[in-house]
Amino acid sequence: MNLRDLVYGLYARRVEGRLDHEQVPKHIGLILDGNRRWARASGGTAAQGHQAGADKIMEFLGWCSETEVEVVTLWMLSTDNFDRPQAELVPLLGIIEEAVRGLAADGRWRIHHVGNLDLLPGHTQTVVKEAEEATADRGGILVNVAVGYGGRQEIADAVRSLLLDHAQKGTSFEELAEIVDIDVIAEHLYTRGQPDPDLVIRTSGEQRLSGFMLWQSAHSEYYFCEVFWPAFRKVDFLRALRDYSARHRRYGG
């Protein structure tokens, strides 16, 4: 171990020792940003950046398992990403498929897809469905893999699902208007039945949500980290938890 690693390890333990473990978020949303910029800075390709980002996921979940985190949502592919050139999108989908397979094979996580499956290629749909089925009865952290996800798309899909559900029940528009409220819409979100994210982390220095969990993050705390996702370290994670635990959450302003 070199001096740098030793100093880093000591600092990480110091940060961890100051954490208020009673204030750890139950649900963390993660915007994995900066893969391509990390690759450019390292002299690599976009595919190499995406692969490095995928390789970081298992390590991140391991850190979460050392805390009281119960749900993690990983935004791996947005609906906007489908506008990327096929030369980048096709390898990226392959990397995501392998990452999802790896999470399912690990044995520690329960996988749930978050997004519009119909937007994904058939092969990617199959990989996601098989991962969900293979891990459905597991304990441990629930890992939402947000693939083909967009916040506006989710709300539109929730409203569509709500309308179709009540159309099958024969509910009139007047009756539906009487019963529609926040809870009724929430029952049709991709994350129905789950707690909303307490903390949303975005890497790479960008300070915006870009449509991530628009409905669920209404009362979330945000943590924006300068480091690119592939270079995200445990100490960066601990800093996010420390920052979160030091805040006094207020609802409604």
What is the topology?
Layout lengths: L2 H15 L9 E5 L3 H8 L3 H20 L5 E8 L7 H21 L3 E5 L7 H14 L6 E8 L1 H19 L3 H7 L2 H5 L12 E4 L18 E4 L9 H13 L7
Helix pairs in contact: 1-9, 2-3, 3-4, 4-5
Question: What distinguishing features does this structure have?
Answer:
253 residues; alpha/beta; Undecaprenyl pyrophosphate synthetase; six-stranded parallel sheet; 48% helix; globular
How many E strands? 6
Binned strand content: 5-15%
Question: How would you name the CATH homologous superfamily of the domain at 26-150 and 198-245?
Answer: Decaprenyl diphosphate synthase-like
Distance between the termini: 48 Å
Overview of the structural elements:
- The structure is a single chain.
- The protein is an alpha/beta fold and 253 residues long.
- It has a domain at 26-150 and 198-245: Decaprenyl diphosphate synthase-like (Undecaprenyl pyrophosphate synthetase).
- 48% of the residues lie in helices and 13% in strands.
- It has helices at residues 3-17, 35-42, 46-65, 86-106, 122-135, 151-169, 173-179, 182-186, 234-246; strands spanning 27-31, 71-78, 110-114, 142-149, 199-202, 221-224.
- α5 (122-135) links the parallel β3 and β4.
- α2 (35-42) crosses α3.
- It starts with a helix and ends in a 7-residue tail after the last helix.
- The model has no long low-confidence stretch (mean pLDDT 92).
